[in-house]
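S.,

As promised, the NDP run. Input:
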Amino acid sequence: GREWHLAARPQGWPVPADFALVEAPVRQPGPGEITVRNAYLSVDPYMRGRMNDVKSYVPPYALGAPMDGGAVGYVVASAAEGFAVGDAVLHGLGWREYATLDAAHAVKVDPELAPLSAYLGVLGMPGLTAYAGLLEVASFKEGDTVFVSGAAGAVGSLVGQIARLKGAKRVVGSAGSAEKVATLVEEYGFDAAFDYKAGPVAEQLAAAAPEGIDVYFDNVGGEHLEAAIGALNVHGRVTLCGAIAQYNDTSAPAGPRNLALAIGKRLRLQGMIVGDHAALRGQFAAEVGGWLRSGELRSDETVVEGVENAADAFIGMLRGANTGKMVVAV
Ligand code: NDP
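Predicted complex:
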């Protein structure tokens, strides 16, 4: 089967030559192991950090070795109790066609309940990030005005919709094109949205939320975070989820320059890592699954066909080529 290796560590924006598609033998499962034919691979922003040789909450990818990440697929060989050929599973050995792994590191998923790719997006890691980040980290409460950046992406599109379903007073989003802005308002039910490339974020946010905001869910950092600090009301809360505007920067960002405002406004800014919120998984799956079935919540995917296009899909996601979750159909 084919698998992606890290060929070089990017300086700034990743380029196709940083990745190499390599043919590798498919290993037969040993005791307790399964072999999975991957159906969908996840490409996620955090993988950009793993391409750098720096210590973080996930170890860096090794040069010349296979990359990993979320994947869903079907068991094609099993030497593990409780796993049969044909079972659908979610696991961590993405970026490849076939994966042989300890079955303890795979979770069975139900392809009848939702399309398999949903377990990489709305019903998976990004979905839980949105749910936990809004409800637990930002302590969202009914009547809050919520602003989310990266609002047309996997996490952001769910943050806005969960806020609406949970009784937000007003939901505002920003995204990188007029088309995405239209989707936020027309498909996801945001009250207002703007294109951050069309003008200063602070000005557009002030117009979209004239009475200020109570919660900011930050996927972007930099200018967005500075604008949100300016717009936040007293006792406002910020979930620091991501800072994608700076993942490819080679020098430290300039802002936010107005952080001292957080003192007088008694703001709470809290970082999050989704892995800390596993205890919410059951409640999340039940509630978000229910909204999906009732049609109250929309989840889009951008599907790139072919394992050979996974690197392009990843780079495309960093540039905003996706609406909703970006996945690769193997
Ligand atoms: P998305 O589906 O949102 O895809 C990334 C999007 O980022 C692109 O579509 C693009 O949309 C936007 N983007 C790229 N560059 C910029 C920029 N300079 N300024 C503003 N937007 C930009 O990805 P995810 O939903 O998977 O992730 C969203 C964020 O959440 C990321 O920051 C990620 O790192 C973080 N995250 C954090 C987790 C945690 O545990 N802390 C877990 C999961 C995700 P556009 O066209 O609008 O520019």
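The chain has two domains: 2-121+300-329, 125-275. Residues 44-46, 126, 129, 150, 152-156, 175-177, 180, 196, 219-220, 241-242, 244-245, 272-274, 317-318, 320, 322, 326 surround NDP (CB under 6 Å).

- D.
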